[in-house]
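Troubleshooting: if your tokenizer reports a length mismatch, compare your output against this known-good record of 159 residues.
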Amino acid sequence: MITFGFVDGTFKNIHYQTVEIQGDVKPVTFQLCNAYININNPSDRYYYKGTTYNGGLYHIRKIFDRQYKAPKNSEEFGIFQVRFVVNCEGKAGIFDHQAFDYDYNLKEFSTEITDQIFEIAKGLQNWIPGRHSKTDQIIDTYKYLSFRIKDGKIIRIYP
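Known-good structure output:
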């Protein structure tokens, strides 16, 4: 396939070769409502209001109490933080995580802890979307959940 486009500062013919898809193609289930989230002002992500879980932090804690199984004889401690985007439909996606010790130095937890917390957090899909602080329009927003870990157990969840 040949098309005409702008490449390396000039207009040129661009040659594309089609590739057959192999294997199963899974549909994308998470979509941003605004594909350009924070592109114009990255600090905006901190000025949205109202992104909450349906049932509040209480309900999130109940879900983790039911599903999280602390590793036996673990002496791990610190803070595990999950960051994600809640779109205007109340669905969560684009997950990332990081971990710290209590002095906020980067650290790593065992996969037994991180995999569980990360997967349970991904299952939280019943969010109330946030609103822009100036226009009150429902928009995509960033959300953080922080988990305080002591001896492999979640002792506190922060919004």
